[in-house]
Structures are given as C-alpha cells and as structure tokens.
Amino acid sequence: MAAYVIGRVNVTNPDAYGEYTKRSPGAIKANGGKFIARGGAVETLEGEEETRRMVIVEFPSFEQAKVFYDSEIYRDARTYREGAAEMQFVIVDGV
Fold first, then answer.
1. Could you give the CA distance from residue 55 to residue 4 in angstroms, rounded to a whole number?
2. pLDDT tens, 38-93?
3. What is the pLDDT of residue 50?
4. Residue 59: beta bridge partners?
5. CA 88, CA 29: separation in Å to the nearest integer?
6. How many domains in the chain?
7. Which of 36, 39, 81, 84 could cross-link 16 (Cys pair, CB 3.0–4.6 Å)?
8. Domain holding 35: CATH number?
C-alpha cells in the first residue's frame, strides 16, 4: 500500500533552501518515491490559515518512506536545509 510523506515548510533562507531542493529529488527517486505536490498554490478551506510551503511525496509503502528519510543520500541533502527552513514531516498510509 502506498504511503505519503507530507511536509509543511517555513522557508527562512531561500538561497540555502534552494540548495536543499536541488538535492532532495535524487534521494526521493533513489528510494522509489515521486512528488505529488511540491510547493505551488495553497488555499486554506477550513481552520487556521496555512502559509507554509507544502510538499507531498508518494512511496510504495510506509516502510519505504521511512527508509528514504533515514537514507544516507537524504541525510546528506538535509544538511543543506539546516538553518534554511523549519520543517514538519509526517508519513501517512494511503488507502
């Protein structure tokens, strides 16, 4: 069953964050993932207004999403976003 990594991102240093966005796609692809949404327009329909960048990545399984997050290639990519963004990532099973 597919699983999704959902990221909500408050970019605090766009230049440094840009370096992270150059490296993360390779880590995602290497671990069987694909982008479903990556930035783009966001509109809050209910609740507190969402102003953060939204990212959704699909993986073949919950376990594969965890493997991606802990992979060496993604750990390296994450070093480029240190001090450049405040992140929240969650993994959710698909249906």
1. 10
2. 999 999 999 999 999 999 999 999 999 999 999 999 999 999 999 999 999 999 99
3. 95
4. 3
5. 21
6. 1
7. 84
8. 3.30.70.100
